[in-house]
Amino acid sequence: MFNLLLLIRKDFILLRNFIPVFLLSILFIAYVQLDNSSMFATFQSLLLLVYSCSMDAQNNNTKFVIGLPVRRQEIILAKYLSLVPYCFIGLVCSLALLLISFSFGYSISPFYWIGVSLTLLMIPLAGSIYLPIHYWLGSKNYYFNILFNVVITITTLNTGSSLSKSSFFLTITDIKLQDHLLPIGLIGIVYLSILYCSYRISLRLFSKEEL
Questions:
Q1: Taking 80 as the threshold, does the pLDDT of residue 83 lie above it?
Q2: DSSP string spanning 140-201?
Q3: Distance CA 170, CA 103 (A)
Q4: Which of 123, 128, 130, 141 minimizes the C-alpha distance to 54?
């Protein structure tokens, strides 16, 4: 467990110079999405994962880390667990944007926190797609990272504008959880299975990589 914390801490050290760029991207999304109070700006926290992986590949950090007394399973698991603090950072940004919107007199969507919650659930799923491809490409993932950054931004903008104008949130609020426990449980199992399968694929790819 201590090794996992140190590996996650290593990623946050790499992110020091990227934080200003990340905050600017959040503000940009907030400006563009004033109509729905930027409820989907949280999705931008995926950029933190992409940048930390990019820095690992650029500086060959993985080769250094693998020489330390840590297992490869811990290196991969730390990447997946780092999604938890990234989601928390996204949540804090959403709260800050909410307070800023209030202070400037902008109207807040009644579905704001539903949108934020859905976005927080989307982040690990998107990360589970990104990480296996990252370890598959290895040091050749430069252009893929650029493409993924563009996809994150476009998805954030398009999802926010389209869902805010649909009846999607009304449908969710009308659902009674006690009447849908079985489907929700099945969805939860599928969700966790996707994350676990992604972890196993990343671990298998990383174990075969020559460092």
A1: yes
A2: G-HHHHHHHHHHHHHHHHHHHHHHTTSSHHHHHHH--GGG-HHHHHHHHHHHHHHHHHHHHH
A3: 27
A4: 141
